[in-house]
Amino acid sequence: MRNILIVARKEIQEGLRNRWVLATTLLLAALALSLTFLGSAPTGNVGVRALDVVIVSLSSLTIFLLPLIALLISHDAIVGEMERGTMLLLLSYPVARWQVLLGKFVGHLSILAFATLLGYGAAAGALAATGEVIDRESWTAFASMIGSSILLGAAFIAVGYLVSALVRERGTAAGIAIGIWLVFVLIYDMALLGLLVVDQGQVLSGGLLNALLLLNPTDAYRLFNLTGSGNVSAFSGMAGVAQTTTLGPSVLLAALAAWALLPLGLAALAFSRREL
Amino acid sequence: MTGTVEIRNVVKRFGKIEAVRDVSFNLPEGETVALVGHNGAGKTTLMKLMLGLIRPTGGHIMVLGDDPAAGEFAGRRRLGYLPENVSFNAALTGHETLAFYARLKREPAKSVAVLLERVGLTHAANRRVGTYSKGMRQRLGLAQALLGEPRVLLLDEPTTGLDPALRHSFYEIVEELRGRGATLLLSSHALTELEERAGRVIIMNRGIKVADGTLDELRRIARLPTRIRLKVTDAGLANVPNWLGPVDGWRQVNGHMVEIDAAPERKIEVLRRATDEGAPVEDLDVVPPTLDELYAHFLLSQETAR
Question: Which CATH number does the domain B225-288 belong to among 2.40.128.20, 3.30.70.980, 3.40.50.300, 3.30.70.1450?
């Protein structure tokens, strides 16, 4: 346990030093703040709960940005250290490989969680400062949005590690990471949509659709946040989907957690078999 | 106490290449062993095997009571390793880097400053490692290898990139560690450097251990001639065979010098004659075969045997 924390601490130290933490936090805060104030312009001020609108726009932002940031920090974690030669020395120390991997995971996730919390928190804080009345339900929805965003980040960090543990070169890892981002964030949904249109409800049953949605962590995240509370789903235009899908929030969270743990386990396995 | 490092019939294959072929040796406590061989001879592979960075294709390895191939690493707290091309994360300072490694070995934080002082990096402790020169990085590498009073030190080409003064202080530190009973395994190309330090030499070639023993033992096995150099007077030069006796392979160098390659059993005889009362010899030097020559000899004899 102590070894994991030692490695995590060093990872955070490096993140602070090479400005990863600063850059990510600033980026998320800037985008969140601009979405909060510019994005609410079309809805006007009448009868709309401001924070719920923010949740809708921020979760869309998260789907694009957090997986990208997570993959950027994680794809290099193993293969990069091997290529630079620092892994050789680290593994000659009394530390197990899974401890190294888990330590990195804790470190990278802390960086991501810190940036998300601060960046998105700034948006909510700014909204509250302008004198908006925000009720408890909205706050809960906002908090669970941040929590699930971090979980989504964890899933993509784990996927990045798996790639990093399997490939021989950093360039390959970067290429595959971009490919994974494209597939999960853009292509998967388009393909699913195309499939539904072509199928016209003939073969694809509701159960199969649910399974297909769970197979993509960003879809699980989207469903969790946009259908979670009645108000939010109404604004997001997802109310229809929310009624047809039978996936409860706990199933969606479990899917996200599985997306984090499974690749992490596989990455640990692949890393333990690597020779260097 | 048996060896701190035991290697039995170890084989390591990378695909078709056999990097290490059936190598066995023990490293007892307190011994300094030189691992000699040119690039690709299997030196680095052997060290990586001892660290569990790679797993042997066959055979067994024990290091400080651990089997590194099974992922055991309790003993590594008392093991120091300096890789051939040591590298560190460029973003952290020297002090931060060493403190990180000290924590992993459960060493107190104060040992960091002591070690930085010992390798002469105190002035650069708060600078980023990215700004360090090659020699400074090598010194930091040595400092991390010395963490935790190691009982076994594996040093892979430790003096490459060090200037002569640093090299000297490096070997002083090594000597001090040996005095405390640490086992040292040094690999190097700089054979003449190792000659004075290593009690024992293991010569590797293409993954095969071709020789293993103290320098004296190896000299005996190799039966390489000892070079004897005599400074001879003008009169003596004219009739060398007369006073030196029937010696093969003598030659005249630099005017007044006579050089003789004496086989081990003839060495004393030649010396006796040269120092005999009537011999026209003003000065003499005896040069035993160097590690370089021994190395060349063992490589050649292995190549021809194949």
Answer: 3.30.70.980
